[in-house]
Design a protein that fits this description.
This protein is an alpha/beta fold and 377 residues long. It folds into 2 domains: 269 residues, Queuine tRNA-ribosyltransferase-like (TIM Barrel, Alpha-Beta Barrel), CATH 3.20.20; 94 residues, no CATH class. The protein has 14 helices and 18 strands. The strands form 5 sheets. It has a 5-stranded parallel sheet with strand order 4-16-15-14-13. Strands 5-6-7-11-12 form a 5-stranded parallel sheet. The protein has a 3-stranded antiparallel sheet with strand order 1-2-3. Strand 8 and strand 9 form a beta hairpin. The radius of gyration is 20 Å and the shape is globular.
């Protein structure tokens, strides 16, 4: 279990195969986000038909409701949700550190106020591991201290160094939990350090100094810094990241960001933007974004994207999808969410094919030209 092979490369871009307890993931791959154990508004079968190989679950939200003990009693997250393919759970760090007015940090962990019932909870590196072990995900993420994009250099350094100290505690607790079932779950560390190249390299060096890992995540990006800065971080890290391990860019999932990440050696992505944009009527297409509420679509019998094979584009017209949104029918947001998820998954699937056949660079250049032709940004 937890094996990864690089099937082909083209420059920094990679195509790989990740083997996990609940299945195989061909990379590069996009992970739809099932925050509370469900991809918002969608049936698991719809997500599977969209091509999803792996889902992300959120430790913070699942801890608050229904609680990891409930999930464990009901057979773990796979059985509870009926999603039987791989699952990765984040540690809850992003959510906790987003609650700046409702949390208190010390070296041991973080106290925070539940948005569900107002109760005060405490999350430590050890508890983050225990919760994720109870949930039963294939991949558990280390508990990290996320500094916002606008943080000072000193605050970013402090958060990065604390993340390394917490990583030691995460690993120690996870090794105890996994001692009797080592093939059940693996744990991945998270590289932090903001947009500072030296801090990022120090973070990665500290991670690698703690021993071997089955994968490495890059966190703390897409939190307010420019895309140019994000690209620079990925380029600076790429030469030092272990070639034989998968690389996961956390919380990044707009179409052009996926393409740029793949070009810089990233293997896995996740983001809520696909379904969030879908619920608000913003569809990604090969010719840029489309506002499905727009009056220009009222008599448009073409699909959202003529190049897409999703359950929305293969059956319904733009005019009908617009009608659903204008009429406030629930089917509208569901269809565009399905489309956006399929769009990202198909993008990563095609990228994999182009890496393997040696045409990735030319294909990516053509994709960008079409996607940004109308000024999409």
């Amino acid at each position: 279990m937890f094996e990864f092979s690089v099937d082909g490369t083209l420059g920094a871009a990679r195509a790989g195969t990740l083997t996990l307890p609940h299945g195989v993931v061909k990379t590069p791959a996009f992970m739809p986000v099932g925050t509370r154990g469900a991809v918002r508004g969608l049936h698991p079968a719809e997500v599977e038909r969209a091509g999803a190989q792996i889902l992300l679950g959120n430790t913070y939200h699942l801890h608050l409701r229904p609680g990891e003990a409930t999930v464990a009693t009901l057979g773990g997250l796979h059985h509870f949700t009926t999603w039987h393919k791989p699952i990765l759970t984040d540690s809850g760090g992003f959510q906790v550190f987003s609650l700046s007015a409702l949390r208190k940090l010390d070296e041991d962990g973080v106290d925070f106020v539940s948005h569900v019932d107002g109760s005060v909870r405490r999350l430590t590196p050890e508890r983050a591991m225990e919760i994720q072990w109870a949930l039963g995900a294939d991949i558990a993420m280390a508990f990290d201290h996320l500094a916002p994009g606008q943080a000072s250099h000193q605050d970013t350094r402090d958060a990065m160094e604390r993340t390394l100290r917490w990583l030691q505690r995460c690993r120690q607790r996870h090794e105890v939990l996994a001692a009797l079932a080592p093939d059940r779950q693996t744990m991945w560390p998270i590289v932090q350090g903001g947009a500072d190249a030296d801090l990022r390299r120090a973070s990665l060096a500290g991670i690698l100094a703690q021993g071997g890992w089955t994968g490495v995540a890059i966190g703390g990006l897409s939190v307010g810094e420019s895309k140019t800065a994000m690209h620079a971080v990925l380029e600076q890290l790429a030469p030092d990241l272990p070639r034989e391990r998968p690389r996961y860019l956390m919380g990044v999932g707009f179409p052009d960001d996926l393409l740029e990440g793949i070009a810089r050696g990233v293997d896995l992505f996740d983001c809520v933007a696909a379904t969030r944009n879908g619920r608000h009527g913003s569809a990604w297409t090969s010719r840029g974004r489309v506002n499905v509420r727009g009056a220009s679509l009222r008599l448009d019998e073409s699909p959202l994207d003529a190049d897409c094979d999703c359950e929305c584009c293969s059956r319904f017209s733009r005019a009908y999808v617009r009608h659903l949104f204008v009429s406030e029918e629930h089917l509208g947001p569901r269809l565009v969410s399905i489309h956006n998820i399929r769009f990202l998954i198909r993008l990563t699937d095609i990228a994999r094919e182009r890496i393997l056949d040696g045409t990735f660079d030319a294909w990516a250049a053509g994709w960008r030209a079409r996607y940004f032709a109308k000024g999409n940004a």
